[in-house]
Specification:
Elements: E1 7-12, H1 15-27, E2 31-36, H2 41-46, E3 51-54, E4 80-83, H3 85-93, E5 97-99, E6 105-113, E7 128-134, E8 137-140, E9 146-151, E10 154-161, E11 166-169, H4 181-192, H5 201-216, E12 220-225, H6 229-242, E13 246-252, H7 260-271, E14 275-280, H8 282-289, H9 295-316, E15 320-324, H10 329-334, E16 359-361, H11 369-378, H12 383-386, E17 400-401, H13 406-425, E18 434-440, E19 444-448, E20 451-464, E21 472-473, H14 478-491, E22 495-500
Parallel strand pairs: 1-2, 1-3, 3-4, 4-11, 12-13, 12-15, 13-14, 15-16, 17-18, 20-22
Antiparallel strand pairs: 5-8, 6-7, 6-9, 9-10, 10-11, 18-20, 19-20, 20-21
The structure holds xanthosine-5'-monophosphate.
Xanthosine-5'-monophosphate binds next to loops.
């Protein structure tokens, strides 16, 4: 994505804040990228940013690790907005005072404005609520700066130097709890930076298509489709760019959700006319899973079998030199920075066979998940694919506790389809991060009609989450739970009990294995 007209760089002092800010800027249709705080100034300026936002962060400007920016940035003539830590940092670096006043603020607080500011241009004259999270406070603006607003705990909650186009806010305009936070960011982007809202879905698609075309030229491209949104959107984009040069491979592991294989056929072969190799490999996967109960061994067996099959297919596609990967922007930002504690080996089925010499094509590398979905919709992918909840690479195998057999998978798939159908009918499917069925391979006693039953339970797992790192169990309505229980027991042979998982993450994980 080289020739993006207006770019706003977000200098990262704490990943969680920076990502949210970049997403908000992009919501305003201005392209935004996150850069490390130690990026050399010359490199920042070489990007010719329309503006720079200094993010919030967990540190105090007086902390032992207080990251800074090169002070020459403030004289570069680029509009700057400092948020929270970013505002304190620019205050201190430009000669103002930040103090431990002992009056930190956390949560919603009323903001009173004292002077006009470009940022508050269309705000109503009354007090608005903003979201605060700070221990230190700005007590003295730098020379030439004016304080423009305050809150009960922050005598200087906003400040600016209008001519130098440098602004700071102690509160967080990027969070939804700040009234008109998005509006404030837009005033910075459009009035202070004079940026144009050019980052539209059509432009995203056009620039991706161009980038793929110039990378691939006349080469052949392979793409492993999983049925999930990322690989589907990546495939659709690459197909738009290079048409028949793309071959998609869909390996049906026999561990997919109900209807996934059919959906992939329908969408890619029939609607998009993509060259699609559909490998029906359920028997092979059930073969390697026979007798395996350990979760990590399951994952490994599935991952290796997948790669083997993919290699076999790839060998038959002549001159395939490129492989599509559905890498997203948050993966790019976080690779290398995140603690590598390996809680589960998240073997991404559909991942890169390590010893195969492919060049990677990553058309989603610059996109957040919501942008991937919007692009998918724009490209005409069906709603079921674009809004499908995440699904683990090893599929239903890691939702069966115990040995994976064809019979258990069939039971679980049928129960899961009921969960999906009912959650959709209740209007909750998009709100929930995931909602699915789990089959612990134990049997319990029940009574149906006049007879005793001895069958499997199904556990319903539904969670809310933003990024799967933490999750809260979803409070599903009783009526929905009642329908799920009735339907699963009545419609799925082999099930006589339904339970609900009410564990958050941590301490639980979202999946059961
Ligand atoms: P856990 O269970 O660790 O899952 O809380 C977090 C998120 O990751 C998904 N998940 C996987 N995704 N391969 C994947 O591609 C895997 O092996 C895998 N295991 C878990 C899970 O569905 C949840 O969204």
């Amino acid at each position: 994505m080289s020739d993006i007209p207006a770019t706003v760089l977000v200098v990262d002092f704490g990943a969680q804040y920076a990502q949210l800010i970049a997403r908000r800027v992009r919501q305003a249709r201005v392209y935004s990228e996150i850069v490390r705080h130690d990026t050399p100034l010359a490199e920042l300026l070489a990007r010719q940013p329309a503006g720079i936002i200094l993010s919030g962060g967990p540190e105090s400007v007086y902390g032992s690790w207080a990251p800074e920016v090169d002070p020459a940035l403030y004289d570069a003539g680029v509009p700057i907005l400092g948020i929270c830590y970013g505002a304190q940092l620019l205050t201190r670096q430009l000669g103002g005072t930040v103090a431990h006043t002992g009056r930190g603020e956390y949560g919603r607080t009323p903001l009173t404005r004292h002077r006009p500011s470009a940022l508050f241009e269309d705000f109503p004259p009354t007090v608005t609520d903003v979201w605060m999270s700070h221990a230190d406070s700005i007590t003295e603006p730098p020379p030439g700066f004016e304080a423009t607003a305050s809150t009960p705990g922050a005598p200087i909650a906003a400040l600016h130097h209008a001519e130098r186009r440098i602004h700071g806010v102690q509160f967080h305009p990027e969070v939804v709890h700040t009234d008109r936070g998005q509006q404030l960011l837009e005033r910075f982007l459009f009035d202070v930076c004079d940026a144009s809202p050019t980052w539209t879905h059509t432009n995203i698609i056009e620039s991706s298509v161009q980038a793929v075309q110039s990378q691939v030229e006349a080469g052949r491209v392979l793409c492993a489709l999983s049925g999930g949104v990322d690989s589907a959107v990546a495939a659709a984009l690459v197909h738009k760019a290079v048409g028949d040069q793309l071959t998609c491979v869909f390996v049906d592991t026999g561990l997919m959700r109900a209807g996934e294989g059919e959906q992939v056929e329908e969408t890619f072969r029939k609607q998009f006319h993509v060259d699609l190799i559909h490998v029906k490999a359920a028997d092979r996967f059930f073969g390697v899973l026979a007798g395996v109960t350990d979760p990590e061994r399951k994952r490994k067996a599935i991952g290796e079998t997948f790669i083997r099959i993919f290699e076999e297919v790839a060998r038959d596609v002549e001159d395939a030199r490129f492989l599509v990967q559905g890498t997203l922007y948050p993966d790019v930002i976080e690779s290398g920075t995140r603690d590598a504690a390996n809680i589960k080996s998240h073997h991404n089925v559909g991942g890169l066979p390590e010893d195969m010499a492919f060049d990677l094509v990553e058309p989603l590398r610059a996109l957040f998940k919501d942008e991937v979905r919007a692009v998918g919709e724009e490209l005409g992918l069906p709603e079921e694919i674009v809004w499908r909840q995440p699904f683990p690479g090893p599929g239903l195998a890691v939702r069966i506790v115990g040995e994976v057999t064809a019979e258990r998978v069939a039971i679980l798939r049928a129960a899961d389809a009921i969960v999906v159908e009912e959650v959709r009918r209740a209007g909750l499917y998009r709100d929930l991060w995931q909602s699915f069925a789990v089959l612990p391979a134990v049997r319990t006693v029940g009574v149906m009609g006049d007879g005793r039953t001895y069958a499997y339970p199904i556990v319903i797992r539904a969670v809310r989450s933003d990024d799967a790192m933490t999750a809260d169990w979803a409070r599903l309505p009783y009526e929905l739970l009642e329908r799920l229980s009735n339907r699963i027991i009545n419609e799925v042979d082999g099930v006589n009990r339904v339970a609900l998982d009410i564990t958050s993450k941590p301490p639980g994980t979202i999946e059961w294995e």
